[in-house]
Specification:
alpha+beta; Alpha-Beta Plaits; 3 domains; 9-stranded mixed sheet; elongated; Structural Genomics Hypothetical 15.5 Kd Protein In mrcA-pckA Intergenic Region, Chain A; binds uracil; 4-stranded antiparallel sheet
Length: 237
């Protein structure tokens, strides 16, 4: 079995993140550092460690959604000591991790799992998984700005893929736009909206693929149903 697949199956990280962990020299196989791709191991024979901890395959798989509040980082640990989303799922006795990332100040739907293959389906660029956001903005977007967002915007010299964008009419809540993208570039929605001249006051993710946040309270998590998991998995086929 490939080393990165084994690390993902042990619930440490998604397969792609496992590759980064390997490259950073944190992995040993039978006591030797392996910091290159292409190593295969036999889980019954070889001893694999990450940061000195021996890995064992976790058999029970967890699939949950969290409604992430503001002011939490979407990482397993944080060098600056800020609260991480792990604090909100500490009642789950398994090494789950976030699938993808939401900014510190973004709220909403975050999937977490210890199933590396599942995380890979949702994060690999070859699988197009739509993610929808509601942004509260300081003024409404005119048709020209909406059309610009839909066609794509140049960020760091590279065009964003076409997006869906529509104003939402809920007069008591100020101005809101719903924007749906499938890429995951750094602060992408915020930067796209800033590029068409509006300020983002808050940003919330309301869906990932077929999965919607519904009325899950902020800071709470719930297990996904088998039907929800299978629908999301279908994205990879
Ligand atoms: N786009 C952003 O700007 N921020 C997020 O957290 C997610 C998407």
């Amino acid at each position: 079995m490939r080393l990165q697949k084994f690390i993902a199956e042990c619930g440490v990280a998604s397969r792609r993140s496992a590759e980064k962990i390997i490259e950073s020299g944190r992995v040993t196989v039978n006591g030797e550092i392996v910091d290159y791709m292409g190593c295969t191991i036999d889980p019954d024979i070889d001893e694999v460690c990450v940061d000195g901890n021996v890995l064992r395959v976790e058999n029970k798989k967890y699939y949950i959604m969290l409604n992430k509040p503001k002011n939490y980082v979407t990482t397993v640990s944080d060098d600056l000591g800020r609260p991480t989303v792990m604090h909100l799922v500490s009642d789950i006795n398994a090494r789950i991790y976030p699938v993808g990332r939401l900014d510190f100040d973004t709220t909403g739907l975050l999937i977490m799992t210890n199933d590396g293959d599942f995380a890979n389906i949702l994060t690999h660029p070859k699988h197009i998984v739509d993610k929808a956001y509601i942004a509260r903005i300081d003024k409404p977007l005119d048709e020209k700005a909406l059309e610009t967002l839909r066609k794509g915007i140049e960020l760091d010299g590279v065009m964003t893929a076409p997006a869906r964008a529509e104003n939402i009419k809920r007069p008591k809540r100020g101005f809101e736009v719903k924007i749906t993208i499938h890429e995951g570039r750094n602060r992408q929605v915020r930067r796209m909206l800033e590029a068409v001249g509006v300020n983002v006051m808050s940003l919330k993710r309301i869906s990932v693929g077929s999965l919607t946040l519904g009325n899950l309270p902020e800071g709470k998590w719930r297990a996904l149903s088998d039907a929800e998991i299978n629908k999301l998995r279908g994205k990879g086929k």
